[in-house]
């Protein structure tokens, strides 16, 4: 398979979708772990410290570039496959839910992916753009180091209930996307042994529930003050 076929053929597109999907699954694990720091209930100290580490070190910054490359690749190839499926079948992914042999969400990956893309853009506008370009307030850690107060930014953003609802909807879409995409990515990479497929299915469903739930609980916890949030001026 030539490099051109990797990005343009049906098999090549599925391969790049699988590889990029596995990378993004690993990223979700790291991101969920960082977000979990808000539940330390230390006024955002641990979260801001972790966010500062991710944003101020060379390796995470290089991985950030790779992340955007894989996200763009995943989106482009996903839409290309969706367009190809539509042209071959004459109908969209999310038509005729009565089909047997597959779940509705496995036939709705294009729709779910679009919702996740809109959610991702909103998320970047709320946090990544201020952190990298427009600037954030700073706060001193217990060791005296000044860092971006991303915890404060979260508290401000998630004061708005409509934003919380939007994030929860995005997380629900992510859950269904992962319910199919997790196992599909490994099958694309050649995992077809019945024992391993069953194990990956179980892991995939667990991942599709636990990780999006953790993401959804973050804005909900901030909005309803289930964690300690300092009073910001």
Supply database-style keywords:
two-stranded antiparallel ribbon, single chain, mainly alpha
Question: Can you walk through the features of this model?
Answer:
This protein has 233 residues and is mainly alpha-helical. Helices cover 72% and strands 3% of the residues. It has eight helices and two strands, in the order H-H-H-H-H-E-E-H-H-H. A two-stranded antiparallel sheet has the order 1-2. Helix 2 (10-35) crosses helix 4 (58-89), helix 2 (10-35) packs across helix 7 and helix 2 (10-35) crosses helix 8 (194-223). The radius of gyration is 20 Å and the shape is elongated. Residues 91-98 have low confidence and may be disordered.
What are the SSEs and their pairings?
Layout: H1 3-8, H2 10-35, H3 45-56, H4 58-89, H5 109-134, E1 138-140, E2 146-148, H6 150-157, H7 161-188, H8 194-223
Antiparallel strand pairs: 1-2
Helix pairs in contact: 2-4, 2-7, 2-8, 3-4, 4-5, 5-7, 7-8
Sum this structure up briefly.
It is built from 8 helices and 2 strands.
* Gross morphology: elongated
Strand content: under 5%
Strand arrangement in the largest pleated sheet: 1-2
Outline the low-pLDDT stretches: 91-98
> How many beta-strand runs?
2
Helix content, binned percent: over 70%
Distance between the termini: 59 Å
Indicate the structural class: mainly alpha
Major sheet: size, sense and barrel closure? 2 strands, antiparallel
């Amino acid at each position: 398979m030539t490099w051109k076929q990797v990005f343009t053929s049906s098999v090549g597109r599925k391969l790049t979708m699988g590889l990029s999907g596995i990378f993004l699954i690993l990223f979700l694990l790291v991101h969920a772990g960082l977000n979990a720091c808000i539940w330390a209930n230390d006024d955002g100290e641990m979260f801001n410290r972790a966010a500062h580490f991710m944003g101020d070190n060379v390796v995470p910054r290089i991985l950030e570039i790779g992340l955007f490359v894989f996200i763009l690749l995943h989106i482009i190839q996903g839409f290309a496959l969706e367009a190809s499926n539509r042209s071959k079948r004459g109908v969209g992914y999310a038509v005729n839910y009565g089909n047997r042999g597959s779940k509705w969400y496995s036939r709705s990956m294009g729709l779910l992916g679009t919702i996740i893309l809109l959610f991702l853009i909103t998320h970047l506008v709320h946090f990544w753009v201020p952190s990298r370009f427009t600037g954030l307030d700073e706060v001193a850690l217990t060791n005296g180091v000044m860092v971006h107060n991303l915890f404060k930014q979260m508290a401000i953003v998630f004061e708005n209930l409509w934003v919380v609802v939007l994030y929860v909807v995005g997380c629900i879409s992510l859950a269904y996307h992962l319910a199919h995409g997790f196992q599909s990515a490994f099958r694309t990479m050649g995992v077809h042994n019945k024992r391993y497929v069953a194990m990956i299915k179980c892991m995939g469903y667990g991942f599709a529930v636990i990780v999006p739930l953790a993401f959804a609980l973050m804005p909900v916890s901030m909005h309803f003050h289930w964690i300690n949030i300092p009073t910001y001026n």
